[in-house]
Specification:
By secondary structure, the protein is of the alpha+beta class. It folds into three domains: about 100 residues, Alpha-Beta Plaits (2-Layer Sandwich), CATH 3.30.70; about 90 residues, no CATH class; about 80 residues, no CATH class. It has eleven helices and ten strands. The strands form three sheets. Strands 8-9-1-10 form a four-stranded antiparallel beta sheet, sandwiched between helices. Strands 3-4-5-6 form a four-stranded antiparallel beta sheet, with helices on one face. α3 crosses α5, α9 packs antiparallel against α10 and α9 packs parallel to α11. It is globular, with a radius of gyration of 26 Å.
Amino acid sequence: MTETSSQHDWMTELLASNPEIGRLVWFTVDDGPVDQTQWLQATVQAGLAVYGTPAGIPANTAYLRGLRAMQQATATRTLIRRVEQEHGRTVHHWIEETVSGGHVHFRVLAALERRAKQDVLMTHPLDTLTASESDALSRLPELVDTARHTYTPGDRRRQVRQWLAAVGALQMAAAGPMQFVPDTATGLIDALTRAQDDLGVHVWSMPLQRSQDVVTTLTESLDAEITKKTAALLKTVQATREAGKTPTTGQQAKLVAQLHDLDSRVQRYSELFGGQLDNLTMQLDIARKTVRSALEG
């Protein structure tokens, strides 16, 4: 055996005796809004689109964010209250709140009418407005349009979590924001790390070496996740039974899909850990029988 061959065998044995099982990962997101188009371009350039493309801002979400921005554009203490909602038409009142003599007084400043199907927004002043209130009200359509093309820190945070979920990341029980990413999916973490300045997402990761303690800790986190999701699934089935109803075709398909996803997740981690997760497999068998019984009748 040559010296090079001997060295290769030694390294193979070393890696096999203590291989990396994955990484512990956590991240933060910069404050402030980000232009939707710019952030989408940054995700594509970083190669992150393969893990899922960020969705647009729903029109209703943009409208509600526009209302909040309108409130924040004045020094007046105001409230937004929905007073009508029917057939794609929603009316909110913009209300001024003042405190005087130990009493709270309310004054309706304007009615805000949104017709979703026609994508129409109308504003109707109902009382005398200050200059800043009048300006904020006139800018509402602009504020809604800006919100429609802007990602908030929350939007970006949810997207990173969706990317992590897409690669099978595991939320660590009792470890705050930390997640475990299997070694087969660390390409996502590398891509996020390379593009963090462009994305305004800051990522930290720590490699985990395979050991009995590590596998035990990860198994406990997986157990907590599967137990919670299984309980929620069975609660849905029980509520349907108690109401004397039969699950609709769509509900049945959703239950079956959820069970399939949980089963696949347990199987994937069983292979990663190198052993059967009997407790979780038993939980899923019980859930499967319960769901089957509910579907049959």
